[in-house]
Amino acid sequence: MPTEQELSAFLRSVDKRAFKRAQFATQNPDAALDVVQDSMIRLADKYGDHDPAEWPMLFQRILTNAILDWHRRQKVRSAWMSNLSDFQGAGDGEEFDLLETLEIEACSEQLEGADRQLERSQTLAILDGEIQKLPDRQREAFLLRYWEGLDVAETAAVMGCSEGSVKTHCSRATHTLAKALKAQGFDHGHT
Question: Which regions of the chain carry the CATH code 1.10.1740?
């Protein structure tokens, strides 16, 4: 039986990433905080006695459902409908993994000067804005895969869709983000 300290430690380890993900989805910091807090309470209430190894996937699924519930409530309240990306397959092509490139570059951050660190923070700020513009399903798949580090199968389970859909959403998202960064003067060869 897991201890309360183990559960608290897990929740602390996911709170910042979960908040960022919810903020992308809701585009409202107060709503994002509510969604994350509700998700944490649901995990503690329903699954606090489960094996801690199960918590990451359970929490991601709970958070996804809480975000979807928030969107449903918004739709009812304001008759607002979000544009979801379609589920048609994308053409095969070479994928450029934007966040992997940024992650590799981040390893040398301690050796960089202030100019390079400023450039990286500007790039990440632009990327942050572009992620917010992605269609909901693309953004969700992208964040689960590259922000949360889930594999394709885990992402499909969390999103309730096929692995092929996850790959399509991620491919479209990375292409859109790479194109947006290139339009801003950045590309994957940029140093």
Answer: 4-78
pLDDT at 129: 83
CB 173 within 8 A of CB 43: no
Cα–Cα dist 99/96, whole Å: 9
pLDDT of residue 169: 94
Q: Where in the chain is the domain with CATH 1.10.10.10?
A: 98-183
Q: Which is nearest to 146 in space by CA: 117, 161, 165, 166?
A: 166
User: Could you say which residues of the chain have pLDDT below 50?
Assistant: 79-96, 100-101, 103-112, 188-191
Give Cα 30 distance to the centre of its chain. Answer: 18
Q: What is the CATH number of domain 98-183?
A: 1.10.10.10
Spatial CB neighbours of 140, under 8 Å, sequence gap ≥ 6: 25, 64, 67, 159, 169
| Three-class SS of 86-136 | CCCCCCCCCCCCHHHHHHHHHCCHHHCCHHHHHHHHHHHHHHHHHHHHCCH
Q: What is the CATH number of domain 4-78?
A: 1.10.1740
Q: What is the pTM of this model?
A: 0.56
Residue (of 140, 120, 1, 174) closest to 60 by Cα position = 140
